Amino acid sequence: MRLRTNIILILAVVNIVGCKKNTTELNSTTKKESIVRYAKGFSLEKYQGFSILTVKNPWPNAAKTYKYILKEKKTILPDSLLGATIVNIPVQRIVVTSTTHIPSLEMLGVENSLVGFPNLNYISSKKVRARIAIGKVKELGSNQSLNTEAVIDLQPDVIIGYGVDKSNPTLENLEKSGLKVLFNGDWNEETPLGKAEWIKFFGAIYGKQKLSESVFTIIEKEYLNTVELAKKAKKTPAVLAGDMFQDKWYLPKGTSWGSQLLNQAKGNYLWSASTGTGSLALSFETVFDKAKDAEIWITSGQFKSLAEMKKANPHYEQFVAFKTKKVYSFVRKEKNGGILYYELAPNRPDLVIKDIVKILHPELLPDHRLYFFEQLK
After folding, report:
1. Contact, 142 vs 170, CB < 8 A?
2. Could you give the CA distance from residue 111 to residue 131 in angstroms, rounded to a whole number?
3. Which of 47, 297, 298, 328 could form a disulfide with 321 if both were Cys (CB 3.0 to 4.6 A apart)?
4. Alpha-carbon distance 49 to 260, whole Å?
5. Which residues of the chain carry a pLDDT beneath 50?
């Protein structure tokens, strides 16, 4: 009887100790602080054998925070994490839904893991287009209405989704089918380096965190060095942006990504005092009154020549920048793909700001050749 009682007591102690260990394991495990410095939309905490990836703002005013556990092989997770979305890393097969995701895959050398994408015609990456040509990347429809059967047939390890709001029934259905969906909010970042830092999101899910940090550090250094160089400029030329679409002139708001780039390149963006991170929608008359004498005009990318602009709206030629042919546009387009700027620019703000400094202050970067932009003729 005493032996039985002792055994029960021992088992009880073991259970208590075991439960205590499971509930405190997360806190007692060696943790490195988040290596995210500029991005506001995600955080990344590294533990022994796993990481916690938290996405906080995948779309404007998102009320929910998404937590993903990135688990390495043979790792036993604390019980407190078992209710979260668990992704085994490194991932081998991936579906992404925005062209801005693709440069991260390419910079990390994992573009061959891409198995599907919605609307392949938008992709500019030469490496990915080569894989599309041989049938290695499947067409999946459109982002808001993915071909669920095609996605399920591909059996990706993860689907990287994005949304403009909380409603995306396609992604919800894919999750119900057992697939893992991770939200990416790179497009919702407000700063150039914040957008670029999302390469660390991909570095984490591929087990290439150190490489992603190294790549970002180079981008960061080149970007900040160019910002410092721009401070040496003797002039601050007035800059107009955007152009008419239907009956409105769309141009960046004052705290937007585009506005920050123009101002950090030491340009006087004429709407930099406005608030917000989206676009202003103004009448032609309002823009003309304020910007008719602007020295530089950076358009939206819908025109390839001054003649095209004049044909679309004869009043464009009334602007001084048009008369002096100081109009620039990001018209570079790869064969069978979309406009390169939309895909790569958010990931490479170092290249964008060098282009803008070259446009505004060519004497500061005499050897730089424009990468995204082109002066319209």
Report:
1. no
2. 9
3. 297
4. 39
5. 1-24, 28
Which amino acid, residue 182? L
Look up residue 219 and give its amino acid: I
Residue position matching structure tokens 């041989």? 134
For the segment 358-370, what is each residue's pLDDT rounded down to a tens digit? 999 999 999 999 9
> How far, in Å, are 102, 109, 226, 231, 282 from residue 270 at the CA level?
33, 40, 22, 18, 13
Q: Is the pTM of this model over 0.85?
A: yes
Q: What is the pLDDT of residues 221-276, one digit of tens each?
A: 999 999 999 999 999 999 999 999 999 999 999 999 999 999 999 999 999 999 98
- Which residues contact residue 152 at a Cβ distance below 8 angstroms, ignoring those fewer than 6 apart? 174, 177, 179
Secondary structure (DSSP) of 134-163? TT-SEE-EETTEE-HHHHHHH--SEEEE--
Residue that has been written with the tokens 């205590």 in this structure: 20
